[in-house]
Structure formats: structure tokens, C-alpha cells
Amino acid sequence: MAIISFSPIYLLLLFARFSAFTVAFLVITWALHFKTSFLPHTQSQEDLIYSVLHPLLMVIGFILISGEAILVHRWLPGSRNLKKSVHLCLQGLALACGVFGIWTKFQGQDGVVANFYSLHSWMGLICVSMFGAQWLVGFLSFWHKGEVRTTRVRVLPWHVFLGLYTYGLALVTAETGLLEKLTFLQTKGNILKRSTESAIVNGLGLGLALLGGAVILVAVSPKHQIPKSKIMYSK
Questions:
Q1: What is the pTM of this model?
Q2: pLDDT at res. 109
Q3: pLDDT on residue 218
Q4: CA separation for the pair 106, 108 (Å, rounded)
Q5: Helix (H, G, I), strand (E, B) or coil at 229
Q6: Rounded to whole angstroms, how far apart are CA atoms 72 and 94?
Q7: 232 beta partners
Q8: CB atoms within 10 A of CB 52
Q9: Residue 203 burial by CB count (10 A; 0-12/13-18/19+): exposed, middle or buried?
Q10: What is the spatial distance between Cα 22 and Cα 214, in angstroms, rounded to a whole number?
Q11: Rounded alpha-carbon distances, angstroms, from residue 159 to 138, 153, 165, 212, 222
């Protein structure tokens, strides 16, 4: 008889992937199926596209990809340089999505100032700025040939801490954005408090919270090789 057992980290990775898939499904459904909630004051097709692109880029492109980049070190087989290369590329892609996602909010006819008034917008700009600085420092510290090993050892704890802090800040920023958008729609009477769209947005916020907990827990857990499965045979 064969008994298959998985390590706790492996189960956490599965849960993180399931949460990420759920979050992606919910944000795509919200952005594409309920497009009327993203109609700007001008109601032009171009502004609608920018409004819909913002949650897609910030949630899927920025948060989900950066979370996967954090998990790379725990599941990707191969050398350390390979893991660092994949981590760097994924974080670079996430940064590009974050920058483009913020850029879409500045393309409306109301201008930049009209989109820079809320806590969500302030936190978003700070988060992406910190993410860019973190990516640049990580690149220079861990890939620049002139850096000695002692410097890398000193930088690594701060790199890990600031990376997780920025990821957590991105999650909180997304939650404030969801709360701001949902409150605005319900206050204006565009949607009911008990409606399909409200349930989707609330589910999206809950999914992000669960995803963030799983990713951070995997990142801070003691490192050990994650077996695909452990097969124990008993007679």
C-alpha cells in the first residue's frame, strides 16, 4: 500500500497557487463583466479601457507576479543563479506592470491631480516607487560583479525584509482600492450592498488577504528542499 505525504511548505504552495488563480478569475470577471462600474465621467471608450486595465495590471501583473517571484526560491529546482535570474525577471515584469498600471490612471481627461487625492493613490505611488528602488538595489547588490560576498551577506536580510514589506504594502493598497471603489459605487446607488458585483469584490479582497498570508508564510518558513512526494511503502 502506498501512502503519499506532502510537506507543509508544499501544501502552502498549492494553497497560494489556488488563491492566486481565484484572485485572477475574480478580478477578470469584475473588470470585464461589470465594465459599467469602471465608466469614467467622460464615458469615452479610451478612458474605459484605461479604467479597466488598472485593476488587471495592478492585481494580476503587479501583485500575483511579484508573489510568484517570491515563491521561486522555494519551488524552482536548479542552481542558485537560475533562481535569482527567474526571480529578477519576474520582479522586473511585475514592476513594469505596476508602472503601466499607475500610468493608466493618469491618462484621463481630468489629469494627474484628479487621481492623486486618496490614501489608495498615495500608497500606490509609494509602493511602486519602493518596489522600483528595491529591484534596482537587488540587481546591483546581487548581480554586480564588483560586489564582494560580505556586502551581499549584509544586504540580504534587508533585501528580504523590504521585499516582503513592499509586497504586503501592495496588498494593503489593493484592499484600500477595492474598499474605495465599492464604497463609491454603493454610495452612488450604482450597485446594491447585496449584489453579485459586491460579492465578487469582497471575495477578491478576501482572496488577496489569503494569498498574501500564504506567500509571506512560505517566504519566512525554514528552508528545506520541497519533495514532490514522499512514498512510504508498508506491507
A1: 0.85
A2: 58
A3: 92
A4: 6
A5: coil
A6: 14
A7: 3
A8: 19
A9: middle
A10: 14
A11: 7, 10, 10, 18, 17
